[in-house]
């Protein structure tokens, strides 16, 4: 469904105080991966490993220095307008901070309605019906549609963000550290919600996180990134219980998932 082929992303670094020359920073280094329908793929690694940059390349928030992102077999950079719009509609994001991903001057109804206005031909009545149904599916009272993001907790806002992403019925969600800003008890609720919604919609998830316990809970497969490269991948249970790469073992010992 969505494929990255030999993806590279290099940023121009800043020169140090002893040198005016800047060194390039390789954020993603020759990464290839494929995401299949209705699966959850965990992408783990320490801060700076390149996992968020890889997610942004797959969702076209950044363009690769080299390599290809293909959606249903077609390079997204060679798509015509209609095909590209279909790709963007079907690949949605849920970001780390729900409050900053929403306009604070918009009501929750406005937040949810915006993508429906821009990307569908739904009537006002149809939009309202979809929003009300989605509020129920993400576990929020319909009356919250008239509230503002600041009037909701972090967990409630993240439920809205997930609902907003799913309103277009995308094939894939890229969840970039989507629980890391939440309390531990709320994190568990959001993970359970994602599982429930996947059962309903059949959405593919790319779950980007430094939290190995969360990745173990939600993912079918896992990819481990270090210094911009995928150093280990495979079924989640196997990788996180019988790791082969030294870096994966280091991560697991650090998170005390193995002893």
Automatic annotation (TrEMBL):
InterPro entries: AAA+_ATPase (IPR003593), ABC_transp_ATP-bind (IPR050319), ABC_transporter-like_ATP-bd (IPR003439), ABC_transporter-like_CS (IPR017871), P-loop_NTPase (IPR027417)
GO molecular function: ATP binding; ATP hydrolysis activity
Sequence ranges assigned to domain ABC transporter in this UniProt record: 2-252
Record-level GO cellular component terms: plasma membrane
Main localisation: membrane
Topology in the lipid bilayer: Peripheral membrane protein
Compartments reported by the entry: Cell membrane
Biological processes, Gene Ontology terms: peptide transport; protein transport; transmembrane transport
Top-rank lineage group of the source organism: Bacteria
Alphabetical UniProt keywords: ATP-binding, Nucleotide-binding, Peptide transport, Protein transport, Transport
Cross-referenced PANTHER family: D,D-DIPEPTIDE TRANSPORT ATP-BINDING PROTEIN DDPF-RELATED, TRANSPORT ATP-BINDING PROTEIN
Protein family: Belongs to the ABC transporter superfamily.
Record-given protein name: ABC transporter ATP-binding protein
